[in-house]
## 1
Amino acid sequence: MRLYKTVTVFSTLIAVFAVVFGFLLLDAAALGTGLLRRFVRSILAALSLSVSDSLLSGAFAVAGLLSIATGAAVYVLGTRFKAPEMDDESA
C-alpha cells in the first residue's frame, strides 16, 4: 500500500503541475504579454535570435496543449495503478 500511495501522490502532483504550466503557456500564447513570454524573449535576444510573434505564439500554444495532455495522461495512468495488496474482487 505504501507504493500505491506514493505513486498516487506523485502522479497527481505531476499532473496538476503539468496542467497549470500548460495554461500558463496558453496564456503567454494568447495575450502576447506576461512574464513567461518576456523571459523567453530575453533568452532569445541574449542568443541573438529573432523569432516572429506569430511563431512564438504558435510554439507557446502547442507546448501548452501538449503539457495539458501530458498532465491528463499522467493522471489517468496514475489512477489505474494498483498495488499487489489490493484485492481485484473489490473493484
## 2
Amino acid sequence: MTDLPSDLPRLRTLETFLDLLLAEVREAIAARERREAERRRGVRARPVPPQWILELGLNRDAPPVQVHIGGCWNAGKRSKGVTQVEARQALSEGVKACGACQPESALGFVDG
C-alpha cells in the first residue's frame, strides 16, 4: 500500500486535492470530447469539392486561365467549380489545360 499520512487533517487535505485534480481531469476529457465532436461535425458538413475547376484571371473582366480536375493541387485561389460541359467548352475555346492534372485527357480531348 502507498505511504499515506496517518493523521486525519492531512488525509482530508489530500482528499480535497485529489477531488480538485479529478475535477480538472474530467473537465479536460469533456473539452477534448467536445472538440472531437465538433471536428466530426465539420467533416460531415464539408461541401463536396467540384469535379471540374475553372481558374479565373486576375480581374473579373480577364478570361479564364486554366481548366483543372476538381481537387487539383495546382488550381489557383481565384477559381470556381464548373460542370463537365463548362469545362469542355472552356477547353474548346482555347483555355489552357492544367499540366499537372491534365483535364483534357479526362474529358476525352485528343492531341493532334
## 3
Amino acid sequence: MKIKKGWIPVFLLPAVVLFLLIYAVPLIMVFATSLFDYRLTAQSMTFIGLDNYIRLFHDPDFFKALTNTVVWIGIQCIVHVALGTFIALILYKKPRGWKFVRTAYMIPNIISNAAIGMIFLNIFNPQFGVVNSVLKAVGLEHLTHNWLMDSTTAFPSVTLIWVLFAGYTTTLVLAQALSIDESVLEAARVDGATPFQTDLFVVLPLLKKIIGTTMVMAATYMLQMFDLIYITTNGGPGKTTTNLPLLLYGVYKAENNYGYANTIGVFIVIIGIVAMTVINKALKVNEEDY
C-alpha cells in the first residue's frame, strides 16, 4: 500500500506550533532578556550586554547555589538511580508480595512535592518531630536539634527527603527487565552462570539504556527542584540549601530584576544540556542496537 507522505507535515504542524509557542519562543526570550536590565517597574528594557553574566561570576551566592545543584544532580543520578535499579532487580525475581511492594514504593512519587515538604517539615520539627522523639526515646537526647535549620545537617536532611524515593526509576527499570527475552537468560544459565552473574553480566547490560534514561530524568528533576526546598528550608540556613531555581526566584522576588534572574535561567538550561549530553554519551542511550 502506497503511503501518502504529503500529509505528514500537516499532522505535525499543530505539534510544531505548540512547541514553538510554549517552549522555543520563551526559551529564546530567556536568552535575549539576560542581556538587558529588565524590570517590570521600568518603562523600558536597557541593553547592558554581558553585564549580568559578569555580575553572576562575581556573585558568591551563585557559586554556592551552583555547587549545591551539581552535588544534588550527582547524588540523584548515582545514589537515587542505583537504589531504584537495585530494588527493580529484587522485584524482577518476583518474590512474594512483589506487586504490593512495587505499588507501595510508588506512593511518595504520586504525592505532590508541597505535601511531602509539609510532612518532612513535621518529621524534622525540633519540638515534636519523629526524628527527635525517637532520639529521646533511645536515650540520645543530646543529639536532638533543629535538623533543617542547622548548617551542618540541613543539606543532608533535605537530600533525604527525595533521594530514597526512587519509584519512577524502579518502575521503568523493572518494566524493561520484565521485557527481556527468557531465552537470553536461559542461555546464560545453560552456560553455567549463577543468578548473580546473570544479573551482573546479562541483565544489567541490557538495562543500560533505560538506566541512562532514568539518570537523565533524575538530573532534570533536580534542575527543577524548588517547592520542597522552599517549604522546608527556603534555602537556609544562609545559603546552605539554596539551589539555582531558588536563587533565581530570590533574585526576581527581592530585586524585581528579570534580566539577572534570566541569566541564572540560562545557566540552568546549559547545565541541563551538559548533564544530558554526558549521560547519553557515557551510557550510549541514543545509539541503535544492531
## 4
Amino acid sequence: MHWIDYAIFGLYLAAMLGIGFYFMRKNKSADDYFVGGRKMSSFHIGLSVVATDVGGGFSIGLGGLGFIMGLSGTWLLFTGLIGAWLSAVLLIPKVSKMAAQHNFLSFPQFLKQLYNPRVALMAGIISAIGYLGFTSSQILAGAKLASATFPNISMQNALILMGAIAVFYTAIGGIKAVIYTDTYQWILLMGGLVFVGLPVAYFGVGGMEALRATLPANFFDLTAISWQQIVNWFITIVPIWFIGMTLYQRIYAAGDRKTAQRAWFVAGLFEYPVMAFTGVILGLFAKVAFETGIIGAGMEGTFDPEMGLPLLLRNILPIGLTGLILSAYFSAIMSTADSCLMAASGNLITDIFNMHNSGKIMLLSQGTTLFLGVTALLVAWKVPNVLELMLHSYSFMVSGLFIPVLAGIFLKTRSSRGAFWAMIVGGTTTLSLILSGLDLPFELDANIYGISLAVLTYSLFHFSEIKPQILHAKKTD
C-alpha cells in the first residue's frame, strides 16, 4: 500500500482510541460504563445494534458466502431482519418496563426478576462464554483482513495488533465509547462499501460480461440453497435477538420502549437488504477475481474463501481508497468486537461475581474487560474460521437461553427449576454435538437438537410443578 493509505488507516485508529480516552474521563458509575447513563438516542443505538450484529465477522463471513454460493448467501441476514422486528414487538415492551423499575445492567438480571438468582447466575456463565467466543471471531476477522492487506504482517502478528487495539479502547471507554464509535464506524463501512467498494470492484473484475462468463448460473439464483441451510440460519440467528447481552445493554441504554423499538426497526432494514446484498455481492466479485487470476495466483495450499474479498480490495483499489476501505472493514470488526467484549465483561462483574456496586467499579470494569480481551485473543489464535467460530458461539448461547426467555415472556406461571435445567441441557447438548463432529440427522445444526431438548426439559419441570397447583385449586373449589 501507498503511504497515503497507511496515513488514512492510522488516522482512523487514532480517532477510535481518542474516543475511548474521551469517555474514560466521562464515565463515573456502572450505569455510565455498561448502559450509557440510559439516555442514548434511537439513531445512535440503531446504528450500534446493526454494527454490532453484522460487524466484521458477518462482513468477512458474507464475503466468504458470496465466494462459495453467490446471491443465495443473502438469506443469512434475512434472518437478522426477522429477529430484529420480532424482538422489537415481543421482547422490548416487557424488558423496557421491567428495566425502568429495577435499573437492570445486564440480561441475566432480567431473568433473575423472572425466575431466581440461580437461573441468573447460569445465564451469566453461558452468556460470558458465548460472547468470549464471539469476540474471538471478530479479532480473527480483523487479523485475516490485516494479513491479507499487509503482506509483510503474519497472521499471528495481525492477531496481536487487532486484539490490542480493540481491547484497549473498549476497556477504557465503556459502552458510551462503544455506541458512539459504532455509529461512526457503521457510516464509514456502508459509505466505503456501497459508494466505493461495489463500483470499483465491479469494473475491476470486468463488469457483467466477466460475471456471466466466469460464474455458474446458480450464483445468481436466490433459491439455490437447501431448506436445511435456511432452517439452520433461522434457528441460530433469530433467537439471538432475544438473548443477546449486547442487545439488552442497548435496550437499557435507550431508556424507554419507543426509543428502543425505533432503533430495532432501523437495524433490521440495514441488515437486510442493505448489508446482506452488499457483502455477498462483493464476495461474488472476489470469486470472479480468483477464477480469472486477479487474486490468488501463486498462493500455496487451499484458498480461504474469507480471504477473497480483502485480497480483491487490496489489488484493485487505487491509492487513498485502499486505506479508506481498509478502515471501513476494520471499523465493522471493531464495532462487534467491542460490544461483545463489553457484554462478557458485564456478565462477569454483574452476574457472576455480583461486584457492580463496588466502590472501585471503574477500575474493576476496565481490568476485567482487559483480561477477557486477552483471553479472546488466545482463543482466536487456535480457531481458523471466522464464520464457524461466530455461529458456534451463537448456537451455544441460543440453545441454553432462548427457551427460558420465551417462557418468561409468554407464560404467567414460570418454573425456575425448568429454566435452570433447560439452560444446562440445551447448552451442553449443542456444545457436545459441535465438539463431537458427528453428522447429524437431516443435516440440521446441533443448535436445533439443543433447543429441542431444552423445550422438553423445561416442559417436564413446568408441568410437574403446575399439576399439583391445578389439583389443589380444584379441591378448594
